[in-house]
Write a structure and sequence with these properties.
- The protein contains 3 helices and no strands.
- The protein is 90% helix and 0% strand.
- By secondary structure, the protein is an all-alpha fold.
- 0% of the residues are buried.
Length: 78
């Protein structure tokens, strides 16, 4: 359990070190890997289980699409 709990602070430390010593390409690659991880978990782990249950599929799909649109707008705005 201690190993599992220490992974996030170690990841933050590694990202901060790479961000301070590396160029923009390394930061872009790390950001892309992080975004891909979130998309993977969101689509394959969470959305698939939620949409497998056939109750309220349309509101769940609409909420998912609205969430992706909001995050895309935040990414463009930022």
């Amino acid at each position: 359990m201690i190993l599992f709990a220490s992974v996030t602070p170690l990841g933050v430390l590694a990202g901060a070190l790479v961000g301070s010593f590396a160029d923009n390409i390394a930061c872009a690659v790390l950001t892309a890997i992080a975004a891909g991880t979130f998309i993977y978990v969101g689509l394959l782990e969470i959305a698939a289980k939620e949409l497998r249950d056939r109750t309220a599929v349309i509101p769940k799909a609409v909420a998912m699409i609205v969430g992706y649109v909001i995050m895309a707008l935040l990414a463009v705005w930022y």
